[in-house]
Amino acid sequence: MTRFAVLVAIVALAPLVLRYPELETQILTFGLLAVAFNLLLGEMGFLSFGQATFNGAGAYAAARVLIDAHAALPLALLVGVIAGAITAAAIGALAITGRGVYGVMLTFAFNEMAYYAAFQWRDVTGGDNGLSGVPRPGIFGVSLADPTHYYYFTALVVLLAFAAVLRVNGSPFGAVLRAIRENEDRARAIGYRVRRFKVTAFAISGALSGLAGGLYAGLYRFVPLQAIDLDTSTNIVIAALLGGTGSPYGALLGAAIFTVLSNSLSHVWSHWPLIFGLVFCAVVLFFRGGLWSIAERWSRRAAHA
Q1: Quick check: 155 and 11 in contact, CB under 8 A?
Q2: How far apart are CA 68 and CA 134, in angstroms?
Q3: pLDDT of residue 232
Q4: What is the pLDDT of residue 254?
Q5: Which H or E run includes 222?
Q6: Are 81 and 140 in contact (CB under 8 A)?
Q7: How open is the CA angle 55-115-134, to the nearest 5 degrees?
Q8: How many CB atoms are closer than 10 A to CB 3?
Q9: What is d(CA 137, CA 151) in angstroms, rounded to the nearest whole number?
Q10: Any idea which of 39-53, 184-198, 240-254, 283-297 has the lowest mean pLDDT?
Q11: Percentage of the chain with pLDDT > 70?
Q12: How far from chain centre, in Å, is Cα 92?
């Protein structure tokens, strides 16, 4: 039974076992953001603090189409994907001009600029009050007003996107990204157009983030300013590192753990980030490959047993 088949089974059975469809939908949308980030860091070796920019662009674009044009949900998600891809391609084209930490700081700066623009552009984003009144239309005659129905719709979309990421990673394009990660100068020397590959990777990552933003807007029928702030970008980085950047499965695992811990600990203690910080430090110190490396180690032992 392949890993993807196991993932499909877990996603399909989760609402039947846990019965918290809204939390499970949140895990899937945040997991897609972590997977999108992992495409840049895990595959290409570029640390981006701008994923919330692409997420917010997709969320606001999808929400405006739903509110103003009363569009079908798939069309709104497509608009979110396009908005995220265009935003990421534009920012990526500029960010990759900076080497090392300078490129990282450019994504940081663009995230802050996007946050300020969303804060000021109240007629479109709602400013600090957020964008409310986002409808959640049904699809093919099926009402998505029920949280469980929306969960399964989100699950289908996220699983298809995840399968596409696995295909990209396993393609020659993914191999070139890993070559750039290992030695960019050598990749350029043997004839690869490194800049084109980098911008394309940013566009794909932005498209996935924009899709996650559109799904998030439909989940809460509301787009808060938090969707585009730096804290969200930081949380995405932490989740991906927690799970492990060596595999999209690790990013998804880290996002699930982060979401569950943040939701559960916040109800127990107001200073819950301290506990989470200790957990993160333990993972970084003792499991350099993230938590997913433990699962891979167990699977290898089982295969040789």
Answers
A1: yes
A2: 10
A3: 94
A4: 93
A5: strand 222-223
A6: no
A7: 55
A8: 14
A9: 14
A10: 283-297
A11: 98
A12: 16
- What is the overall mean pLDDT for the chain? 91
Q: What's the token pair of residue 203?
A: 């566009």
Q: What is the pLDDT of residue 141?
A: 83
In angstroms, rounded to a whole number, what is the distance separating the alpha carbons of residues 227 and 305? 46
Query: What CA–CA distance (Å, rounded) separates 213 from 38?
Result: 17
What per-residue confidence (pLDDT) applies to 290?
A: 84
214-227 pLDDT tens trace = 999 999 999 999 99
On whether the CB atoms of residues 96 and 198 are closer than 8 A, the answer is: yes
Coil vs helix vs strand at 142: strand
Alpha-carbon distance of 56 to 125, in angstroms, equals 10
98: left (phi over 0), alpha (psi -120 to 50) or beta: beta
Q: pLDDT at position 304, please? A: 63
C-alpha span between 36 and 165 (Å, rounded): 8
- pLDDT category at 277 given cuts 50, 70, 90 is confident
DSSP annotation of 190: T
How high is the pLDDT of residue 302?
62
DSSP 8-class letter at 20:
-
Q: Distance of CA 100 to CAs 86, 108, 185, 233, 241, Å?
A: 23, 13, 14, 18, 18
pLDDT of res. 303: 63
What is the rounded CA–CA span in Å between residue 295 and residue 301? 10
How many C-beta neighbours within 10 Å does residue 296 have? 17
∠ CA(268), CA(252), CA(169), 5° rounding?
A: 165
Tokens describing residue 17: 């076992």
- H or E element, residue 132: strand 131-132
Residue 189 DSSP SS3: helix
- Quick one: average pLDDT of 109-128? 94
How far apart, in whole angstroms, are the C-alpha atoms of residue 89 and residue 115? 18
Contacts of 178 (CB under 8 A, 6+ apart): 43, 44
